[in-house]
Batch of 2 targets.
Target 1
Amino acid sequence: NAGVTQTPKFRILKIGQSMTLQCTQDMNHNYMYWYRQDPGMGLKLIYYSVGAGITDKGEVPNGYNVSRSTTEDFPLRLELAAPSQTSVYFCASSPQGPASYEQYFGPGTRLTVT
Amino acid sequence: GQQLNQSPQSMFIQEGEDVSMNCTSSSIFNTWLWYKQDPGEGPVLLIALYKAGELTSNGRLTAQFGITRKDSFLNISASIPSDVGIYFCAGQLDFGNEKLTFGTGTRLTIIP
């Protein structure tokens, strides 16, 4: 199984540009998450989804948007990129049920905004 | 938001040594998880704990869910070079809420 895949691995954006970070999981997990990780810091939740068509804000949602049209995909959209959005972005998923807290992470997208 | 305090922030040990690290909170958590992150990779789940007092092992790793539900501990026995990385604790605060709160990590370095 591929698990959670993310594209691209690296990206450099200019201030004001927009982009979409892709995330796909093949584990049929209901729950999906987007985190950002700044240098030397833990993970901060941006948005999450408990199923197709349902999304909700996390701790740091400003400047981002998400959609969940299918169980497998959970893209993260950055509009008007700012230097403060320079970070490593991780997508994760978890199953419904007793193990719903056990999140599985993708390899990350390293984004630089200059 | 909630904070999880991990200590130590970093550790420098020799191969073969045992390692202990912990995670504390001012709030009660219902679930504790431990993750390891290798450089340039996403976190990988090591151990999940669901009951206060629970002690769970995964190979040379042992983790405990503190009896007060406000802390958790991770021990690594007989460290090897591939143990190098950043270890994160994560806690789940509210039943029915799948969101996790992550600690800031403990960076483990093995001195040759």
Target 2
Amino acid sequence: KQEVTQIPAALSVPEGENLVLNCSFTDSAIYNLQWFRQDPGKGLTSLLLIQSSQREQTSGRLNASLDKSSGRSTLYIAASQPGDSATYLCAVRLDPTSGTYKYIFGTGTRLKVLA
Amino acid sequence: GAVVSQHPSWVICKSGTSVKIECRSLDFQATTMFWYRQFPKQSLMLMATSNEGSKATYEQGVEKDKFLINHASLTLSTLTVTSAHPEDSSFYICSAQGGVHQPQHFGDGTRLSIL
């Protein structure tokens, strides 16, 4: 059974710092991995999608890497800003050959960037 | 692009009432829609996957007679919580996907409170 864990659960940093959020999954047979941002009481905003054949994706100050064999992904945020404060969730999509292609979500990292 | 609209955003109703939540993809055709439930400070738990024109696939432990899902068109899926009780109070979020290789796009969620 696929399980997705995110470390740390919460993080507080001063503005301007570079930071890394971690996501680990127990079964390497994934189709893709997606990072999301969730603001309080809101839905999810997609940040980056990495296909299983890819190693990383970049968008602005965000960079996500994927090491499928070790079951790990990291989200790197450069020069953090107070507006980056939110909960960050990673989700792995199961390999369709398993009979399903649903997403399994991680436990999330609550980030607070202090001005 | 890729906007998903979810309605209503907030609903309060009496125990025993049935509540319908709509999820619409505004600018793309969603072959698959997903319904999630999220308790406070917890991650998203998939309730069901629905493909246009076919019956929804429910996750283990989710009562399909209580949570009715209809995906009648490529732009609309509905979730009806039948005979709702206080324990059904939660944050319900839908997502839509334009194809197997496409990312999920999420609605803003519906906060359901049953008195």
